[in-house]
Design a protein that fits this description.
single chain, alpha+beta, 3 domains, three-stranded mixed beta sheet, three-stranded antiparallel beta sheet, 43% helix, 16% strand, Bact_Sporulation_Assoc, SpoIID/LytB_N, Stage II sporulation protein D, transmembrane helix, transmembrane
């Protein structure tokens, strides 16, 4: 896409220059014809001598021609236009790294809201609407807006919503670029509208339960979060990242290899203390019978279930359970979380009679950006780029159209 944009801009500039030069040459010919033949005609009519004709001709040649002046002026104008275009391209390349709060680029400069970003706006995302068994085709930025609506509460801080918009855009750009088809129940779509990929709310359902005034405010903040980050994605070493995120941390995020098998350099454990006080999902207790507990873990016993033997063997850098032994069997914290349907892999437990109460801390896998942590950072005055740089170690925000190799059949 980058080569295509550069090539197209070069061709358009060349055509414009050639056309201008052709006009200039034509005007020079006309000028010379009219100005050089006029004195000769006068000389013939008056019977002037050859010397007089030469003097007049010489005098005319010394005058600055309109064509020459026009050519210089045009070159100056073309040079200024070229410099403005170059400034626009530089702004598109570097403007996305500017911190929010700085003066916005001038209208028409070709910065984040124009130029390269507009090219990506042509890309279509095919979303499988699960509950309606249909595929919705929407522009990429419309899809991003629907994901922000589905993944974050509307009363979150604007900078948190912007961080979510950039993460959501990164996810879909990477998926389209890699032609990733994982998790799809149908062949003619790119993503579902579920947490398997990203929760997406169609336009017609946005703010359905709100009154008119509330809906207008809601749409305005969604539009603002999307528009102010238009075309921006998170990259690491020139490639779109796995922009994973989750609801609430236990006070820390997790290293990727502590939950998945792969060590990813930008998915490192960092403190996330904001979640503890802000998130309503920070702490949760579920209670089940010991029989249910053993059954879900696949532990069978020939006797009546008694008090289980449970011991934590290892914890992760993110303070979650890495390994735990239950009734002589070893599990990973992730296994226990998934088998028991827990909110987090950090948990404590208490056995009372034939029941066990398990208290979890945090909500989600814990890798990447904490959404409630992002909101906490925004409340402290941090902007979207600060938030993303904090949760995705060593990554940077750039324009997606500079990287994404999206095929032409994906465009409107």
């Amino acid at each position: 896409m980058r080569a295509f944009l550069a090539n197209r801009a070069w061709k358009e500039g060349s055509c414009e220059t050639m056309t201008g030069a052709r006009r200039i040459r034509l005007r020079i010919r006309k000028w010379r014809t009219s100005r050089l033949w006029a004195p000769f005609a006068v000389g013939v009519m008056l019977g002037a001598s050859a010397l007089l004709v030469q003097l007049i001709a010489a005098d005319l040649r010394q005058q600055p021609g309109a064509g020459t002046m026009r050519s210089a002026q045009q070159k100056q104008e073309e040079g200024a236009a070229f410099e403005r275009a170059a400034e626009g391209r530089d702004a598109a390349a570097g403007g996305v790294r500017e911190r929010p709060g700085n003066p916005p680029p001038e209208e028409g400069s070709g910065a984040a809201k124009g130029g390269a970003a507009d090219e990506l706006g042509d890309v279509v995302v095919r979303v499988y609407i699960t509950g309606e068994n249909r595929v919705e085709r929407v522009p990429l930025e419309t899809y991003v807006r629907g994901v922000v609506a589905g993944e974050m509460p509307p009363d979150f801080e604007l900078e948190a919503l912007k961080a979510q918009a950039i993460a959501a855009r990164t996810y879909i750009v990477r998926r389209l670029e890699l032609r990733d088809r994982s998790g799809m129940p149908v062949r003619n779509a790119d993503v579902t509208d579920t947490p398997v990929h990203q929760v997406y709310v169609p336009l017609k359902k946005l703010g359905q339960t709100m009154d008119k005034e509330s809906r207008e405010k809601y749409m305005a903040v969604l539009d603002k979060a999307t528009e102010e980050t238009k075309g921006e994605i998170v990259t690491f070493r020139g490639e779109p990242i796995e922009a994973v995120f989750f609801s609430t941390s236990n006070g820390y995020t997790e290293n990727s290899e502590d939950y998945w098998q792969e060590e990813i350099p930008y998915l490192r454990s960092v403190p996330s203390p904001w979640d503890v006080d802000l998130s309503p999902d920070y702490k949760e207790t579920v209670t089940m019978t010991l029989k249910e507990f053993y059954g879900k873990l696949g532990i069978s016993s020939g006797r009546e279930p008694g008090k289980p033997s449970i011991k934590v063997l290892e914890r992760t850098d993110g303070k979650r359970i890495a390994e735990i032994r239950i009734e002589g069997r070893t599990y990973s914290g992730r296994e226990v979380r998934e088998k028991l349907g827990l909110a987090s892999s950090q948990f404590t437990w208490k056995v009372e009679g034939d029941s066990i109460a398990i208290t979890t801390y945090g909500y989600g896998h814990g890798i990447g950006m904490s959404q409630w942590g992002a909101n906490g950072m925004a409340k402290e005055g941090r902007n979207a780029l600060d938030i993303l740089a904090y949760y995705y170690t060593g990554a940077e925000v750039v324009q997606a159209s500079k990287l994404a190799n999206l095929s032409e059949d994906r465009r409107l």
